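Example 3.2
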Amino acid sequence: MQMRFLILMCGEGLGHTGRCIAIGKELLAAGHKADFGAYGYSKELIEKEGYNVHKIPQELRLVGNSGTFDLKGSIKSTLWAMDITGGYNLLNLLTNSRYDAVISDGYYLGVLAAHIKNIPVYIIVNQSNMIEFFKEKGIFMSLLGWATKMFYGKVYDIVHTIIVPDFPLPYTICRNNLSFSDKVQHKINYSGPIIRKGSKKATSKELMHPHVLCTIGGFGYRFPILQKVISTAKLDKDIHYTIVTGPNIRPEQLDEIPGNVEVQDFISDPFSYYKSTDIVISACGHGTTMETLSYGVPIMAFPDRGQKEQENNAQLIDEMGYGKKMDYEISSDSLLISIREVLESSEIKENAKMLKKLASEMEGAIFMRKLLEEDLGAYGLPNNGEMPTN
C-alpha cells in the first residue's frame, strides 16, 4: 500500500538533515511518496540529492563566540528573524497536499501544524531535556526554561509516536539529554542510528594512516579549534588529518597549513572517510556522533561551551570508553598526547566496534519505515486523515 509522507526538519546542524534524507530514501525505495520541508543549508543539501523540497520557516538561529554557545543571543536572533507568515504557509502546504503522516525531526512548528490538520505526527527526538540550557542564567531565563519545558511536554502529548534515533539502553548516547513524562513512555521507540549510508554500502577512501578526520567546522565560533588542530598536526608529521570547515568557515581563513593536513570546505561523501579514518574530531552533535559510531570510529569530542546537549553526549562518550571528551583550552601538546592515546587504545577501539555491529543489526531507517507501514496500515490509511490517538 503506497503512502505519502512529509518529512520536516530543524536545519540547525546537519544531523537532522542526514537522518531525514535516510528516512526519505528508504520510504521512496519501498514505493512510497515522500516530500521534504527544510530551509537554508539543509534545503540546499536535499536539493543536491535530487529530492523535492518545500521551503519552511526557520524556527531557530544559533549563535556563539569563540567556542561558546550563546543562548541569549540565539533567542534574540531567533525572535528577530521570525517569519510570522511561516506558520500560515505551512498550514497551506498540509491543506493542499494529502499526506498520510508527518515526520518531524526536531521541528516543532510542523508538529503543531499537523496536529491542527489531524494528520498523525511521528517526532524524532534526541534532546528533550531543554530546561538544562536555562539553568543558572537568571530569573527571566529560568522562567523561559520552565515555559519551554511545558511546551515540549504538550508537544509529546499530541504526537502519535516518539522516535529516539539512537542505540537502545544502556548504550544510548543521548540518554542524559532525554526527559519524558510517564504518560508518554509508551510512545517511545529506539530506532538505532538513522544514517544515510551504512558501513557495508560505503566505499573506502585512500587515506594515509594514522588518519584523523576533523568535522568541527560549520559555525564560525568553532574556528579556534580548527587552528588548534592545525597546530597539533605540525607537532607530528606522521599523523595525517582531513579538516572540514563547513559552510560558515572558508579554508583560506586558516593559516600555514602543513603538508600532513588536507582542508576541504565540504565533503560530498563523508561515509567513505568514516570507513577509512582512525579518529573523528567533532563537536559531538548527535547526528555526526551516530554516523561516526555506526562506523566503529572513536570520537574526540570538543563540545561547544554552554551547549548542554553536546556536553552531555561528550561526557557519556568519555565515560563509556567510545573516545575522549576534550576542552577548547587544551594545548596543542596535550591534544597530540590524547590523539596518540586513542590511537593506541585497544579498549576504545573494541567498544566502538561493538556499536558498529549494533548499528548494523538495528538498521534505523528500515526500522522507521516498518514502524510507519505497520502503524498506518493497521488503521486503513492512506489518505483518510484520521488515526486513533494514543
